[in-house]
Each structure stands twice: as structure tokens, then as C-alpha cells.
Design goal:
about 700 residues, alpha+beta, 6 domains, 10-stranded antiparallel sheet, 4-stranded antiparallel sheet, about 30% helix, elongated
């Protein structure tokens, strides 16, 4: 099996003595490549064995202990658990570094049952404390293999060395690389920033500072079959550098790994707990979310912690359709000897942390099956609900209002503001990850909320945004929809009550849902409507509008005709209004056979009797999607004259229809000389405009 990436940390391996490794292998089994060199192997041999040999279950457990407890926090967890169980610290060897102490503890618990109990408690503390090694994943522009691995390894070492020197990280870099069935592993040992801790040197009583560059071990895995790069770095600040330098060195393109975001939590907002059901990954039981970061606009970043976040959100009636989830912690039951669930922390767009590295590959499959990891890019579906509390960049608002945006700013519907958190231009998928802090007049600094995304300087222009003014938006909609009666001023609630939409003899009370309506809204609007018809306009297909007739808007800014058509349908008034009110957009010729009326370009044609030849001609032409013969016209409008006069009746009916249309247009000051029914071959006419007949 493929060893989890965190276990290939060359720094951790070298910090454990050869004697300690020999004791570990004697206890859990020797790697195949080391079996013949028990007294002569080196740390490099160990690293090579871990990269190529199949590990035993015991070795995987030992490496899990090294990864979990081989830190200052891990050692404190061990000592705390031992004190809790009343175990003397002298039962473990003294004078060991944190890495070796972790392995000695692992070996000791196999010989002492009381230490096994302390081991379990220490594991719980470490896993719940978030002491997990993180990794970041990036998708390349294409899946490509690496040519001349040795040459690329040397070039990579030189690039990292130059970066370390320029960044004052020291001057030591070692890079080892190997390939195994299309998987390329780069083990990197590099110096980090100079440290000068105050210490007491063994054998001396005086305090002194010790200057040294610590050595960090970073591991990079590139899967050539998928074009996917995984980076496990001790310092998150170097993740972006590794992403660029790997693309540059391996493929001559620093932006090679600037592909789609690897992590996407949108599925959790769309499906809630249902996202974790029927995933089909063998070995995974129950899954639940215990923490999440929920971002709404630039001001609201809500952290939710619960033993079941989705249950708590439902009980608190939190509208998940608003904003977006940018980070989530999941608990996953895994079939195995351990009863501890695996903790998985995901931060969009690229970070994944797994508490138990033994199950890293299983968790990868699970996240892929759920739709979180390497999910296909989702179409942008922002609307007024998801944009609450309505503070965003001008570009975001243009995505909603289009070319009308500038006019809305002029009218005061959108108010200029300065954002207090903004996306990083190179990591838009991470959300509003930069918290804005003023530095000087006109200069700002964006402090990143995600360790692997760098902070950066900002200008006032970067912070320019617009905020929706709901009351002005209500006034604008009333004007746009020609609503003049009814309605009330915005009360800071979820609705904009626009008033009565007049549709012929019908009046429909109309309200616009800025957010998911609360229970009881139906009774409220029916009261405002005086018991008449009322309709609720939804800018989103999500949400529940069962208390009232509902219209899901095709655009955040509906036209009057679009709204009338949909509102009439929602209130089941189709048979109670004239055909012109339910005709589709673009229909220039509208015929209502139930009341004998015709409209052209929205103008009712006067003087057109329902039993006249001209009316029958218009009905026949409007109904036909192809050309119509004069014989068919005569047969329809005057069957008694069909044998007497081949087409006189057809020509006269058309002429009379054109005359009445022109007269009606002239009556409102419009000239009209267009031929709506031109000849179409000898003896045929056709309707040259879109039409609608009821």
C-alpha cells in the first residue's frame, strides 16, 4: 500500500536514532529492503524503505504514533494522560527528543497494559486538539509525466536554496526524489528561520542563548496519472512557493498548478446531512459535522461548534442558503480496531487535515464520493439570498443587476462602501480570506485567515464595494413594475411589500422575498391584500413558499410583463385575464378568441369584430407556424364564396386587417406600414411575426 504522505517526513526520521529505529523494527517487523542490513542501515535507507516497501500494520501504527506524538503538544498529551492514570513518568526513558520519546512510548505500551490506557487518552487529546499535519492539494492544467527526474531534482534543490537564502531561512537544502508507478515523491530537508532560544546547556548552570537553524522536512507528491500535486509542509507560508516552483521546474510553467480548487463545500449547503448518506465507500460508517466556518458577506464569519452542526443549524433556523461554508470539521467512523472516529478538517480551496494518517487514502475516497474533494466546478448561483447581508464588490453586483448596476448606484439602491474583508486575488475560492487593517492614509494590509494564503498590501480601490439599500430597492421595483397602490415601507424584515399589481380587472398584492420568508408570512400578506389574491416573488429557486402563491423570478429585476404572466399563472387567473397578459415575451401578434380581441405590439386593435373576415384571417394566420394558402383562408373565413371567387375574400380580409392595425397605431401617434403577412410563393401568405392565440 502507499504510505501516507506525512510518514515520509525526512526530518522526523533523522531525529530518531538508529538504535531506536532498530528497536521499532524488531517489535513490528522489518521492511523488506532493510532485512539484510540490520547493523548497517542509515536514515537514508529508512526513508528509501518507507517510500518503496510495503509497510506492516505494526509499522504503520508506529509511524502514526511518531506523527501524532512527535511534537511538543504530543509530548504534553502523553505526560498529561500518564498523570491522569497515576503512572510514574520514570517508566519512560529520560533525555529523549520529542520524536524518539514518541516511539519509545509506543514500544513501552506494548509491554505495559497501563501505558496502553494512557496511550488511548493521549491520542484523544491530540486528535481533538487539532494537532494534525495538514496538506494542500492543487490540480494541474493537464496530467503529464516528469522527464529526467534527476535533473529536475537538482534544479528544484537550487531553486529552493535560492528561496531559503532570500527569505533568511538559512542555506541548507537537500532534495531526494523517486518515482513509483506514476507517483513522484520529493523529500525535502531545508533549514528554517534562525532561532535563539534561552537554554541551559547540559553540564552548565548558566543560561545562554543557542543560535541555530531548525531543519524542516517537507514532502511533495505528484500523481502524473491525475495531474494532482499534494504538498505537506511544516510551514504553511512555503506552500504557495512550492506550488509555483514545481510548475516552473517540472513543466516550465509557474502557473501549471493554478487549476480548479480541490476542495468545495457547496455540497454541504445544498444537501446538509444528506450529503453524507449513500456515499458507497466501504469501511466508512456514520459521518457528522462538528465545526464549520460560515461566511456571509465581508462582515459576518460565524463559527458553529456542535456535536451535530446540521441539527443545531436546523434548530436555530439558520438559513444555509445565505453566504457559504468555507471550512468544515467532519467526524468519520471507520471500521477497524480503534473506536476513535477520524477527524477531517477541510478549508477551501485546497487544505485537508486528517487526524489519523493510517486512513488518509480511505478519507480521500470518501471526500471524492461525497463531492468535496476534486469536485467539478459548480456554476455560480448567487442571488439576493446568498448575498445577504448585501455588502459586496461592484463586480459581484454586476453579476446580479448587469448593465442596470450603474443606474442603481445613481438612484441610491446600491450605496458605495468600504469592505472590511476581501478575497485574495490569487485565491478567490477561499472566500473573504483577507481581513482589512488600515496602515496609513490610502494604504491597507490584508491579513490572511488561512495560513497557506499569504497576507498582502491593499489599496482603497481593492476595498471598494456596494451595499444594497432595501427601501430604495423597493421604490425602484415599484417604479419598474408600475405599481402605484398598496405596499408598506421596509421594516428590516425579509420582505419588500411592493403593493398591488393591476392586471385588467384583477389586483394581485405583490411582495419580494429578500430572504427566506418566516412562518406566518401568508396570513400577513393576505391581510395586506384585503383577502384578495397575493403572490410572493422569490429571487431563488430554493426555500419554502407554500403559504402563498409563489413566483420564482428568472431575473433579480423582473419586467412588468414577465411578472404579470407568472403571477397570473401562480394565482390560477389565466382564464380571468385577457390573453395579452399571459402572452410570452416577444409575441407581437396576440389573439384572444374568447373575447374576440387582437393586439399588435401591445396595442389593442379597434373596430375588429369577432365575426368579421379580418378577425378570422388574423386567427388563422396567428395559429399557423407555416405558410397558409389563399384557398385555406377563403375556406375558413367565407366557405360559401370558395367556388365563386378564388382569393378575393382572402385579399380583402388581409387588406382590412392591415387597415385596422394602421388606424389603431395612428390613434396613439405611431406610424405602422409593416406587412405582417407577406406573400410566400404564389397563392400563399405567412405570418412574419411571433404570435400567441388563446
Amino acid at each position: 500500500m502507499q504510505l501516507p504522505l506525512a510518514y515520509l517526513d525526512p526530518a522526523a526520521i533523522e531525529e530518531v536514532s538508529i538504535d531506536a529505529w532498530r528497536d521499532v523494527f524488531d517489535a513490528v517487523g522489518w521492511p523488506a529492503s532493510l532485512a539484510g542490513m540490520r547493523d548497517s542501515f542509515t536514515h537514508s535507507d529508512i526513508l528509501n524503505a518507507f517510500g518503496h516497501d510495503d509497510p506492516t500494520d505494526g509499522l504503520l501504527q508506529a509511524l502514526e504514533a511518531l506523527d501524532s506524538f512527535g511534537t511538543e503538544q504530543g509530548r504534553e498529551a502523553i505526560m498529561s494522560a500518564m498523570r491522569d492514570r497515576g503512572i510514574d513518568a520514570g517508566r519512560l526513558p529520560a533525555g529523549q527528543g520529542e520524536r524518539e520519546f514518541a516511539l519509545r512510548f509506543f514500544l513501552a505500551k506494548h509491554r505495559d497494559a497501563s501505558l496502553t490506557d494512557a496511550f488511548v487518552r493521549a491520542q484523544i487529546q491530540v486528535q481533538e486538539g487539532g494537532n494534525q499535519r495538514r496538506y494542500n492539494e492543487f490540480v494541474g492544467k493537464e496530467a503529464r509525466s516528469i522527464k529526467d527526474l534527476d535533473r529536475n531534482r537538482e534544479t528544484l534543490r537550487a531553486e529552493i536554496l535560492e528561496f531559503c537564502r532570500k527569505s533568511e531561512l538559512g542555506g541548507h537544502v537537500q532534495v531526494e526524489a523517486f518515482e513509483d508507478e506514476g507517483i513522484y515523491i520529493f523529500n525535502i530537508l531545508r533549514s528554517h528561520r534562525l532561532q535563539k532560544p534561552l537554554a541551559v546547556v547540559s553540564g552548565h548552570s548558566a543560561r545562554a542563548t543557542i543560535a541555530y537553524h531548525p531543519v524542516h522536512g517537507d514532502v511533495i507528491r505528484y500523481d502524473a496519472t491525475l495531474g494532482r500535486l499534494r504538498i505537506a509542509a511544516r510551514a504553511s507560508s512555503v506552500v504557495e512557493f512550492y506550488r509555483e516552483v514545481l510548475g516552473k521546474v517540472l513543466f516550465g510553467d509557474a502557473g501549471f498548478f493554478d487549476g480548479d480548487a480541490v476542495c468545495d463545500l457547496a455540497v454541504l449547503q445544498e444537501k446538509g446531512q444528506r450529503a453524507f448518506e449513500d456515499h458507497g465507500v466501504y469501511g466508512i460508517g456514520r459521518i457528522w459535522m462538528t465545526e464549520c466556518l460560515w461566511e456571509r458577506g465581508d462582515r459576518d464569519l460565524c463559527q458553529i461548534r456542535s456535536n451535530d452542526c446540521f441539527r443545531s443549524m436546523e434548530e436555530l433556523q439558520l438559513p444555509l442558503s445565505q453566504g457559504r461554508i468555507v471550512q468544515a470539521k467532519l467526524k468519520c467512523e471507520v471500521v477497524g480496531k480503534s473506536t476513535r472516529p477520524v477527524t477531517v478538517n477541510i478549508r477551501v480551496p485546497s487544505r485537508i487535515e486528517v487526524s489519523q494518517k493510517l486512513h488518509e487514502q480511505l478519507i480521500d475516497r470518501l471526500l471524492g464520493a461525497v463531492g468535496i474533494r476534486n469536485a467539478a466546478p459548480r456554476p455560480k448561483t448567487d442571488n439576493l439570498w446568498t448575498l445577504y447581508p448585501w455588502r459586496h464588490s461592484a463586480d459581484t453586483w454586476r453579476g446580479q443587476f448587469g448593465p442596470e448596476t450603474d443606474r442603481l448606484v445613481t438612484l441610491g439602491v446600491l450605496l458605495p462602501i468600504q469592505l472590511i474583508a476581501v478575497p485574495h486575488p490569487d485565491h478567490v475560492g477561499a472566500g473573504h480570506v483577507l481581513d482589512v487593517h488600515a496602515v496609513a492614509d490610502g494604504d491597507y494590509y490584508g491579513v490572511s485567515r488561512a495560513a497557506e494564503i499569504s497576507s498582502r498590501s491593499l489599496t482603497a480601490t481593492d476595498l471598494d464595494g456596494l451595499e444594497l439599500n432595501p427601501e430604495q430597492f423597493r421604490d425602484y421595483l415599484r417604479t419598474r413594475l408600475e405599481i402605484t397602490t398598496g405596499g408598506v415601507a421596509w421594516d428590516n424584515g425579509e420582505l419588500l411589500e411592493l403593493g398591488f399589481l393591476e392586471v385588467g380587472d384583477q389586483r394581485i398584492y405583490t411582495a419580494y422575498a429578500l430572504q427566506q420568508p418566516k412562518p406566518g408570512v401568508g396570513a400577513r400578506l393576505r391581510t395586506s391584500a384585503g383577502g384578495g389574491h397575493s403572490v410572493l416573488l422569490f429571487p431563488s429557486a430554493d426555500g419554502d413558499g407554500a403559504e402563498l402563491a409563489r413566483v420564482t423570478l428568472e431575473s433579480v429585476l423582473p419586467t412588468r410583463q414577465e411578472l404579470i404572466r407568472q403571477a397570473v399563472c401562480a394565482c390560477a387567473l389565466d382564464d380571468s385575464v385577457q390573453a395579452i397578459h399571459i402572452a410570452p415575451d416577444g409575441a407581437r401578434l396576440v389573439v384572444d378568441t374568447t373575447i374576440g380581441r387582437v393586439w399588435v405590439d401591445g396595442v389593442q386593435i379597434a373596430g375588429l369584430a369577432a365575426d368579421s373576415h379580418a378577425f378570422k384571417f388574423l386567427v388563422l394566420m396567428a395559429k399557423s407556424s407555416a405558410r397558409v394558402s389563399r384557398d385555406a383562408i377563403v375556406s375558413a373565413i367565407s366557405p360559401g364564396r370558395q367556388q365563386q371567387d378564388e382569393d378575393t375574400a382572402a385579399r380583402q380580409a388581409k387588406s382590412r386587417a392591415r387597415e385596422l392595425i394602421s388606424a389603431s397605431m395612428a390613434a396613439i401617434g405611431r406610424s405602422f406600414d409593416e406587412d405582417l403577412f407577406p406573400p410566400c410563393g404564389k397563392g400563399f401568405y405567412r405570418c412574419a411575426v411571433l404570435s400567441f392565440v388563446r
